[in-house]
Write a structure and sequence with these properties.
The protein is of the alpha/beta class. It has 2 domains: about 20-140, no CATH class; about 145-415, Rossmann fold (3-Layer(aba) Sandwich). The protein is built from 10 helices and 15 strands. It has helices at about 1-15, 20-65, 70-90, 165-185, 275-285, 290-305, 345-360, 375-385, 390, 400-415, and strands spanning about 95-105, 105-115, 130-140, 145-150, 160, 165, 190-195, 200-205, 215-220, 270, 320-330, 335, 340-345, 365-370, 390-395. The strands form 5 sheets. It has a 6-stranded mixed sheet, with helices on both faces. Helix 4 (about 165-185) packs parallel to helix 10, helix 6 runs parallel beside helix 7 (about 345-360) and helix 7 (about 345-360) runs parallel beside helix 8 (about 375-385).
Length: about 425
Amino acid sequence: MANLLHTSGIIRRFARNQRGGTAVVFALSLVPLLIAGGVAIDYLRLSEARTELQAALDAGALAVGAAKDLDHDQRILAGTKTFERNMTKAGKDLNAIDYEFELDGQTVTGTARYDLPTGLMQVVGYVAMGIEAETEITVPDEQKAEVALVLDYSGSMTEISGGQVKYVAMKNAAKKLITDLETTNEGKVKFGLVPFSHHVYATLPKAYVIGTTGSGNWTGCTQDRRYPHNLTDATPTGSNATKWGHPHAPVHSSDGCWAYAPKSLKVAPLTEDFDALRTQLDNMQPYAWTHIALGAEFGYHLLSPNAPFTEGAPYSDDDTSKFLVILTDGRQTEPAFGPSSRTVSQGEDNLEAICSNAKASGITVMTIAFDLQDEDTTNRLRDCASDPAQNFMIAEDSSDIAAAFADIREQITAQVFISR
């Protein structure tokens, strides 16, 4: 009887102890909650891994398509290495991936399958989730590219960033871009150069330069045309306001034109003479102040079919894509012509307008902020780019600038010489 009373007391105390019961129930309810949370996390990882797998496969296929100077097996190897490099960078185990590239004529196909190890889903028996991706691209025969490199050669480009002089890192990256696109797209690409500081030094027909008479050409330094002609690619008319040849603003009167020729800072129209371009890049040296809008103005004209530079294909030529690449390491410091005055802030406004007009002409604008410490100019370059997420790049040092030009090469290759 005593044992029975003791037992019933224990039962009554257990029934009254709701705190312990709640803990047990809560602990048991955590199991499905944790599983549900684990499923959500695993599917998020699945989505990220699928994106990474597709991006790596696309990059590999592009590498196969772009390596047209190699034989069949070498092109496949180039694509395979690109894919493996991207997946390794994403932290994926190559042993868990099946992948293959094939090349048939001008068509490249790629397939990949990856078994992504699960996390908490292993509790319910799922140890891996399968991801599949495929891609197919073609290499068109008729497509061409025209690229105007508008490069900052102001005095600050002599500074050191990342252990290398900035203009040296820039010219090495630009030379590699020219060589890479020349090698893989022979006869299908042209480049032009616009080295700018506070002047641009160029050869122009005398009819388009103020204060000149007769036929033939004029070679010298010029600032921007009078507003609003400095925003367009229209050919100068008989009016002096439409012409080049204006001297720099008095604020920088001590820095004249004398240094541009010996420093090889001369505009080079679109050409396929890549050796000459590389030689000029080797010889160019920085000088004086910064007129970004003026550089963009001349870059726009280089790509335009309108005189004075007529090397560019018509805008109506669907087989030719045009690219305006603008690089600077500092803010605008040279005044520019506006509606009623000539100011530095007007130069900033002019750059925005030139970018908008170039994009409206069908030109892809790419911009690079190189070791640029001015937030307003950085934002302006971002807004100038055709696609700020893709065509605007920030380079902090020499290794970044090499990567930025490599990115430009890949974008041009993908946009012009590769189609899906």
